Request: fold
Amino acid sequence: MDATRYAFITEWVDTVASQVRKYTVCFYPVDNTVEMIDNKQKKLLLRRSTVPNKLSEFFIGGAVTIYGRQLKIIDYADDFTRNQLGNKLERTLLMVKPDAVSKLSDILMAVGDTSKLEVVALRMTELSSGDARELGCDVGSGKVVAVEIVGANAVSEVQNLCGPVDSSQARSSAPGSLRARFGTDASSNAVHASESETNAAHELQFFFESRKGTTCALMSNDSTLCIVKPSLFARSAASLGDVIAELSSNGYAVTGLNSRILNRSDAQEFLEVYKGVVQEYLSMVDELTSGPCVALEVTAAGARDNFRALCGPSDPAIAKQLRPDTMRAKFGVDKVRNAIHCTDLPEDIPLELEYFFQILA
Reply:
């Protein structure tokens, strides 16, 4: 058996004790297991256990959720890990420009088809002309989707995926590229990609740190909440693209989008209505904290009354029998990993939208 082990130094904010605790997390790709060591007490905290995480989630500055604890990765724990991963995994930004936001599902599917790349975070936001100047790229103003991507040589891989800056040139020299497929010219060219690791760090900080509180959700009477659960998002970016395509084909527009890694207290608070009501409550909390989830605000006439019908029964096995055209029938695995969360009661929709797009921000 391959005994390759990667080790990372992580931090966890213990809100009860008001302390920051450090752990060494060891990840074994061969069987997707981890073990955790308490660095202060020098003792094993978690024996080797199976987790849903992937190696691509373990990068400096990123965060992983392991058994309800959100751990920020601050360093490599040994030279082997540093040598193996330090020069390989890169973070970069792919920005979907205003002229191509309607093609978001196709763009995510294209990223998902590239085996070297993993989408780890997304955020839809509104850019002003001043924001565009600060970024220093030709984007214009309007609604954009920022996508954080991690992978081996991610900066150059994403640039290759985008193709030449001028879309007309891209159609000649790289007809399968994103700019060839979805762009018009050198300005309205669908996407922007970071030019270097330095630029990527600046652009990711702009979208995912300094603009952390920014939201462009409509919060209208025709909007409702759709959460793509971690187990579905973890499959690939293409899975999220499939969901968005399904929404679009049924008349729903994505008017807000934000990925989040929920800690256990946030997930328990959000799912509290199910506590003592459904047997799967604790498993639902585990699922929602097992990795990034993606909150989508979807908008259509009558969405608050009709969206649950598109999601289907909570148990995908029942959905496959009774409602095979629903999203849970198509994307769900079981009653907990059922792909999509939707609000049960129309009167709770404003509260759930506010929770994900305002309170957590």
Observations:
- The chain has three domains: 6-85, 89-210, 223-359.
